[in-house]
Amino acid sequence: MTSTLAVRSISTPEHLDFVRSRSSVSFLQTPAWATVKNEWRGESIGWFRGETLVGAALVLYRQLPKLQRYLAYIPEGPDIDWHGGDLADWLTPMAAHLKSQGAFGIRMGPPVVVRRWNSTTIKAAIADPVLTSLSDVPADVSDDAALDLRQSLKKLGWKELDASGGFTAGQPKFNFQIPLADRSEDDVLAGMNQLWRRNIKKAAKLGVEVTTGTKPDLPAFHEVYAETAVRDHFTPRPLSYFERMWDALNAEESDRLVLYLAHHEGDLVASTTMVRVGLHAWYSYGASTTAKREVRGSNAIQWQMIRDAMAAGATIYDMRGITETIDPDDSHAGLIQFKVGTGGEAVEYLGEWDLPLNRALYLGFTTYMRSRG
């Protein structure tokens, strides 16, 4: 570093201006996300070299019961130059600032991709009876500098969270993405497997119509989402969460969160949300009805989101988390098999990392979290 970095709180406008200056930042690192996650206390922090803002993060503080002490969580962040100089110059002043705010520990998810596997490699691996995990498959691309960061974090006292199966308690370590840069719609469609192309064509032939909705359409989305939760055995978020997400994200940028609705002969058969920040677009929530699954509304809606992401200038369409299993007998394998049909790639991030600041409180917290399962 040419000069010492200082970390301090920054205003929401300062943070948002910095986000807008970047090619992309995770939507979990936008100031608006603090409003969405209102059960946490949010703080925007900035890294300064002199008077110049050179890095930023949204910190979410979760309070310990009965104590004014907090876990400071930075999901898919911070947004700093991860390969610029000594990592300690970035992380040491951050830790000092968060400790001054009452943090007993820090959890973060560096937005750094370590390895990539293309769809051809993944399909071959799924067909190989010996291979059961992506980690067992030689990657098509490995970033040595990113791998070095893992060792640097350990030397600084950070602990990598267990991501067995691909998920930690927070954000997924493995994601599936479709590269869009310098590709036409025809290129992307040609990269999909025959089943995806056939289902997209079938949906169009059967008259599935995909439109974008407004806030009053969220209850219709939520009804299908709740049905999906029962079918797929997960706990749904309340409608109020999506209304808060709509208000917060779209107050920041008018088209940051877009709602999609797929209808067939007047019936809502699928509905999704897409978030875009800069050049990165994310498929964030999806739902479909059990009835009329044969009209392939889910494929039609995904294709429309991909096309809209391209039209908006996105270079990545992110289908979010997958587990690393490629064992056909594993119940999670269907997720990667569905997504690999798009012709995209699996990417592995550095994962989530903890830094204990008060070891006794941190140990108590992690023991409590383990007891919750």
TrEMBL record:
<dbReference type="InterPro" id="IPR003447">
    <property type="entry name" value="FEMABX"/>
</dbReference>
<dbReference type="InterPro" id="IPR050644">
    <property type="entry name" value="PG_Glycine_Bridge_Synth"/>
</dbReference>
<dbReference type="InterPro" id="IPR016181">
    <property type="entry name" value="Acyl_CoA_acyltransferase"/>
</dbReference>
<keyword id="KW-0961">Cell wall biogenesis/degradation</keyword>
<protein>
    <submittedName>
        <fullName>Lipid II:glycine glycyltransferase (Peptidoglycan interpeptide bridge formation enzyme)</fullName>
    </submittedName>
</protein>
<comment type="similarity">
    <text>Belongs to the FemABX family.</text>
</comment>
<keyword id="KW-0808">Transferase</keyword>
<keyword id="KW-0573">Peptidoglycan synthesis</keyword>
<keyword id="KW-0012">Acyltransferase</keyword>
<dbReference type="Pfam" id="PF02388">
    <property type="entry name" value="FemAB"/>
</dbReference>
<keyword id="KW-0133">Cell shape</keyword>
